[in-house]
Design brief:
It contains ten helices and 13 strands. It is an alpha+beta fold and 301 residues long. Strands 1-2-3-4-5-6-13-7-12-11-10-9-8 form a 13-stranded mixed beta sheet, with helices on both faces.
């Protein structure tokens, strides 16, 4: 394991003028995770398989130490040497902190993150507490409550007249444009403008890995969904899209139901998050057999 350097700790303990004045946590308990920690970390994350599916999938797909994670994994150990938290700190910052000490320590480390933070996610209301330690009384650029939807066998499968299939690399442009449209709705940032080359590479990699599913009608993309994270127990879907002119035809619920049936051959549970304001989308998910089981807060920085 690699512990934080003295300079990193000193920098992280600086309380900015616009942050909440609070006693600095024990940053000596925070350390950078390496491949040697993989087994222990995966065991820790497995306690909450749905909430930790993204971090688990990143480790399974890319390894603990990889530029593809767009951030660094950190662990927090208590005085007895036991893990109390695991976090991926970077572009997408994900936190599984079992104690307030761990949550606070991760927030202080995030202040000096090497990769700029774009999004912060955690289960329940942990994101709000994390933000208080991270930025104090300032506000995130965008804050939204998201509902967690889950489905497992048995569930009512709808008849679907469309062929939901894996996407082809030749369909990259249509898929990227659809995914970018969803990103703008969520974060108010267009990835095709902010980082076009990097965004296209990430979308292409997902297609190449067989994790993007589509329906085309008369040569036009009318439905899309992406497997963002996958473990033996859970598959996490994102980027569920129905072409605007095709909405109201039942395409979303029927295609999602068909895709879910396919994916439940690979995992026990399928889940997704949806902004609390997208009521029409929620109705579609419910028709597809999903149930709202929880909620969380997502911040865009």
């Amino acid at each position: 394991m690699t512990y934080l350097s003295t300079n990193q700790i000193a920098h992280a303990e600086i309380v900015r003028s616009n942050t909440l004045l609070t006693e600095a946590p024990n940053l000596n308990a925070v350390y950078s995770l390496t491949e040697s920690d993989r087994v222990e970390v995966l065991r820790f994350l497995a306690v909450h398989p749905v909430h930790s599916v993204a971090m688990t999938s990143f480790i399974n797909d890319n390894g603990v130490e990889s530029e593809l994670n767009r951030g660094k994994f950190y662990g927090y150990r208590n005085a007895a040497g036991n893990l109390e938290g695991v976090a991926l700190i970077g572009h997408t910052t994900l936190i599984d902190a079992r104690t307030d000490d761990a949550l606070k320590a991760f927030a202080f480390v995030t202040r000096s993150a090497e990769i700029p933070v774009h999004m912060i996610m955690s289960d329940g209301n942990s994101t709000e507490a994390f933000w208080e330690y991270y930025q104090g009384n300032s506000d995130p650029r965008v804050a939204c409550t998201e509902l967690l939807f889950e489905v497992a066998f048995p569930f009512p499968v709808q008849d679907c007249e469309w062929n939901v299939r894996q996407a082809s690399p030749s369909e990259l442009n249509e898929i990227a444009e659809a995914h970018a449209a969803i990103a703008v709705m969520e974060s108010e940032v267009d990835p095709m403008v902010a980082d076009r080359e990097g965004f296209l590479k990430r979308v292409a990699r997902r297609i190449e890995r067989g994790r993007t599913f589509v329906v085309f009608e008369n040569g036009k993309l009318i439905f899309k969904a992406d497997v963002v994270a996958e473990t033996e127990d859970v598959i996490y879907l994102e980027g569920i899209y129905v072409a605007p002119e095709c909405r109201g035809r039942g395409i979303g619920s029927k295609c999602l139901s068909s895709l879910t049936l396919q994916l439940l051959k690979r995992a026990k549970t399928i889940c997704l998050l949806s902004n609390i304001n997208y009521i029409d989308a929620h109705l579609s998910y419910l028709k597809a057999g999903y149930k709202n089981t929880d909620s969380c807060t997502t911040y865009f920085v």
